[in-house]
């Protein structure tokens, strides 16, 4: 049996990491739809998603304007063009990994190390790419 999108969020993103648990996580469609999210994930608009999709081709632009997730603004820290965007807000931040048709998003709060968020988000994204998503 294949896992549901919600199970990917619950069992691969919202799990105990070395430094804690993510504050929120989601798998968003690049069309602005939400495939699955944690109960704590903000309601992201289609416009916010579109800006993020466009930002993957130019992480420097995202660094200048910031990353907006459900009205929360994260300072863009750049990333890997067409693959990863990273952001910061106070002691927390976010990691966004682009796949063929989705965006895997992790938001972390105080106490969680950015590297822990990067690893789970990017690993799940790489897996989804490997199976055609």
What would you say this structure looks like, in words?
The structure is a single chain. The protein is α+β, with helices and mostly antiparallel strands and 133 residues long. Helix content is 33%, strand content 32%. The protein has a 7-stranded antiparallel sheet with strand order 2-1-7-6-5-4-3, sandwiched between helices. Strand 4 and strand 5 (84-89) form a beta hairpin. The longest helix is centred in the C-terminal third of the chain and has 17 residues, at 114-130.
Helix content: 25-40%
Structural class, from secondary structure content?
Answer: alpha+beta
Strand content: 25-35%
Secondary structure: number of strands: 7
Which strand order spans the largest sheet, edge to edge or round the barrel? 2-1-7-6-5-4-3
Regions with pLDDT < 50 over 5+ consecutive residues? none
Mean pLDDT: 94
Q: What's the main sheet like?
A: 7 strands, antiparallel
Gross geometry: globular
């Amino acid at each position: 049996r294949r896992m549901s999108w919600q199970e990917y969020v619950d069992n691969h993103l919202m799990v105990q990491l070395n430094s804690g648990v993510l504050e929120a996580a989601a798998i968003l469609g690049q069309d602005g739809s939400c495939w699955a999210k944690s109960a704590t994930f903000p309601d992201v608009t289609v416009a916010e998603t579109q800006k993020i999709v466009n930002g993957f081709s130019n992480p420097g632009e995202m660094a200048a304007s910031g990353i907006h997730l459900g009205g929360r603004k994260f300072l863009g820290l750049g990333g890997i063009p067409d693959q990863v965007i990273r952001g910061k807000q106070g002691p927390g931040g976010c990691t966004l990994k682009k796949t063929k048709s989705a965006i895997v998003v992790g938001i972390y709060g105080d106490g969680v190390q950015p590297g822990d968020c990067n690893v789970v988000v990017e690993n799940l994204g790489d897996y989804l790419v490997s199976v055609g998503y």
